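[[Local backbone shapes]]
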Amino acid sequence: MYIMNTSDLTHKELKVIRYIRNMLMNSGHTPSTRELMAHLGYRSPRSGAVIINQLIDKGFLRRKSDGGLQIIKNPEEHDSSHAQTVDVPLVGSAACGMPMLAEENIEDMIPVSVKLARVPHKYFLLKAKGDSMDEAGINDGDLVLVKQQFDARNGDIIVALIDDEATIKEFQSYGNTIILKPKSTNKYHKPIILSRDFKIQGIVITSIPNF
């Protein structure tokens, strides 16, 4: 059976697919024709509409009843020479020791494989600080990929927000008591004991050593 791959698409068409994928993950919606026009550097919205229609005709996109777009075929899925990525924001740092303020400004956008950052879920990246999670494979300076969600199960490694400060710890729930546990060779680090008066920002998916 013939499988269509990236060679069947123009550079502009591939750029549109990747832009739509990034918009879905980072904002939860697909771009408007005018946003697409601006991203591609076109002067007319009609040029953006034309390239969208080409991708619909080729079977890569579908227009939904609400006017939004849906990716129905990934052009890089069967093409081993092209990794499929989404841009994930790097938003600062979080402590692997005592909690430390995580700055919420985006410092950079870093391409991450969709095998790790799965659309349509939202993700962000933090730089880990300290050594309280070294036994979990998270060391000082590592880049941590976090799936944004606001609940967790026992044993999950989470990013927790305590008094507007972020920390990375193992989550354990005992009724109304929450324990955020370090996993460290350094016995200086102690568990943080809480009620439910804190916020879970996300679940750690993986860490990239010494980024």
The chain has a mean pLDDT of 83. The domain at 6-71 is CATH 1.10.10.10 (Arc Repressor Mutant, subunit A). The longest strand covers residues 85-95.
